[in-house]
Design a protein that fits this description.
globular; binds 2-acetamido-2-deoxy-beta-D-glucopyranose; alpha+beta; 7 strands; Transferase(Phosphotransferase), domain 1; five-stranded antiparallel beta sheet; single chain; Phosphorylase Kinase, domain 1; 14 helices; two-stranded antiparallel ribbon
Length: 393
C-alpha cells in the first residue's frame, strides 16, 4: 500500500479526508452543491489521488446527492406529508394566487410559513412555468444562509403547498444588503429579517433561472421601478441585470426612493433610459461610487460585468465587511427586530393577520394521497420532500 508524506496509509488518509469533508457538509448544510463539489475537488486527499477508485467516488457522490436532496428537518422521517399535518394559525401574506400562512407542524410543533396557491388561478393566468421555476429556485438554494429554505412542496387536487422557513422579523427598510444567490426578484419587500436580524431573501415568483455568467435571455423579470434599461428596451440581457437591480434597491435604501422614480410610469421609464441617477452628497463617496457603477446604463460597463460578484465584493463600500464572517452569520446584525417568539406577528400586516383562516386548507386530505399523481397533471414533479417521493437520480 502506498504511503503519503504524512506517513500514514493512503487509503486511511483519503477516508479521513472524505469523512472530514462529509462531516463538515452535514454540519453546515448551507453550502450550494456547486460550492461543495468545488471544495471537494480542491481537497487534495480526495480528488488529486489517482488511486481513489472510481466506484468509491461514485458511491461518495451518490451519498452527497442523497444528502443534498433530502430535506433538512426532522420531518424527513414522514413518508408522505399532507395538508392536515399542519395547524394553520394565521394568514401572514396574500397575493393573487393564494396565501402564506403561519403553520405549526402537529407532530414536531415546528413553525413554518406555508404558501398555498390555487391551481385554478395559476392555470387561468398561465403561470405554471413560473410556479415550477419558483419551486426549483427554492430547491436549489435550500442551503444558502440568506435565502428562505424550502422544506417541502406538495399538492392536493386543487392547491399547491410550499413549506418554507418561517421568519417574522419584518421587512428590511434600512442598511446595505447584497444578493444572496442568483435569479431572485430583488426588491425591498422580498428582503425579510429573521428574529436575530439576519436577512432572508424570499419570493422567487417571477424569476429566470440558471443564467450562465455569459448567458443572455430576453424574458421579462422584475418590478417596474427596478427594471434595467436593456430589459425596458426588450434587448437581450444577462446577469448584469441583477447588478442594476441591486443598485436600484441599494439606492432606495440609501435615499428613500428608487432611482429615476416618478409617479408617471412613462416618465420613470424615460428617466431609466436617459437620465443619470441623482446622487446627493449625504451618502458616502464609496456608496455613491458603488451606485454609479451598478446603475451604468450600458451593461458592459456596469460594475460586475467583468468579474461578477468579485467586483462588488472588493469595492471600497464593502471594505469593512469580512465576507466569511458574514456568510457564517458571525457579524452582529445592525438591527435586531423585537419579537417575543414565533407567534409574535407584529411585523406582519394586520390586514392579513386579522383574516380568518379557511378550514378548507385541510379538508380534502382524503383525496390527497391517492390523487397526488393524477392531479399532478398541470404540475408534474411539483411534490418534493419525503424521501419516498423522490425519483432519485
Ligand atoms: C465568458 O466571457 C469571458 C470574457 O468575456 C471569457 O473569458 C470566458 O471564457 C467566457 N466563459 C464562457 C463559459 O463562455
Ligand atoms: C439623504 O437625504 C435624503 C433626503 O434628501 C433622505 O431621505 C435620506 O434618508 C438621506 N440618506 C442618508 C443615508 O442619510
Amino acid at each position: 500500500m502506498a504511503v503519503t508524506e504524512a506517513g500514514c496509509d493512503l487509503t486511511y488518509c483519503k477516508m479521513r479526508g472524505i469523512v472530514a469533508v462529509l462531516t463538515a457538509f452535514i454540519k453546515e448544510r448551507k453550502m450550494g452543491l456547486n460550492d461543495f463539489i468545488q471544495k471537494l475537488a480542491a481537497t487534495p486527499h480526495i480528488c488529486q489521488q489517482p488511486s481513489v477508485s472510481v466506484w468509491l467516488q461514485g458511491l461518495f457522490l451518490l451519498l452527497v446527492f442523497q444528502m443534498y436532496l433530502s430535506p433538512r428537518s426532522s420531518l424527513a422521517e414522514d413518508t408522505q406529508i399532507k395538508p392536515c399535518d399542519f395547524d394553520y394559525l394565521k394568514i401572514i401574506g396574500k397575493g393573487s394566487f393564494g396565501k402564506v400562512l403561519l403553520a405549526r407542524h402537529r407532530e414536531t410543533t415546528r413553525y413554518y410559513a406555508v404558501k398555498v396557491l390555487q391551481k385554478k388561478i395559476i392555470l387561468k393566468k398561465k403561470e405554471q412555468k413560473h410556479i415550477m421555476a419558483e419551486r426549483s429556485v427554492l430547491m436549489k438554494n435550500v442551503q444558502h444562509p440568506f435565502l428562505v429554505g424550502l422544506h417541502y412542496s406538495f399538492q392536493t387536487t386543487d392547491k399547491l403547498y410550499f413549506v418554507l422557513d418561517y421568519v417574522n422579523g419584518g421587512e428590511v427598510t434600512q442598511g446595505p444588503v447584497l444578493c444572496g444567490g442568483d435569479r431572485q426578484d430583488l426588491k425591498p419587500e422580498n428582503i425579510l429579517l429573521d428574529s436575530q436580524g439576519h436577512i432572508v431573501l424570499t419570493d422567487f415568483g417571477l424569476c429566470k433561472e440558471g443564467l450562465e455568467p455569459n448567458g443572455t435571455t430576453s424574458t421579462f423579470c422584475g418590478t417596474p421601478e427596478y427594471l434595467a434599461p436593456e430589459v425596458l428596451q426588450k434587448q437581450a440581457y444577462d446577469r448584469t441585470v441583477d447588478w442594476w437591480c441591486l443598485g436600484s434597491v441599494l439606492y432606495e435604501m440609501l435615499y428613500g426612493l428608487p432611482p429615476f422614480y416618478s409617479r408617471n410610469t412613462a416618465e420613470m421609464y424615460n428617466n431609466i433610459l436617459h437620465k443619470a441617477p441623482v446622487l446627493k452628497p449625504n451618502v458616502s463617496n464609496a456608496g455613491r461610487e458603488l451606485l454609479e457603477g451598478l446603475l451604468q446604463k450600458e451593461r458592459c460597463s456596469r460594475l460586475g460585468a467583468k468579474d461578477d460578484f468579485l467586483e462588488l465584493k472588493h469595492h471600497s463600500f464593502f471594505s469593512p465587511i469580512n465576507w466569511d464572517d458574514l456568510m457564517a452569520k458571525k457579524l452582529a446584525p445592525p438591527f435586531v427586530p423585537s419579537v417575543s417568539g414565533p407567534t409574535d406577528l407584529r411585523h406582519f400586516d394586520p390586514e392579513f393577520t386579522h383574516l380568518p383562516v379557511s378550514a378548507s386548507l385541510c379538508s380534502d386530505s382524503a383525496a390527497v394521497t391517492g390523487s397526488v399523481r393524477e392531479a399532478a397533471g398541470a404540475f408534474p414533479g411539483f411534490s418534493y420532500g419525503p424521501p419516498s417521493d423522490h425519483a432519485f437520480m
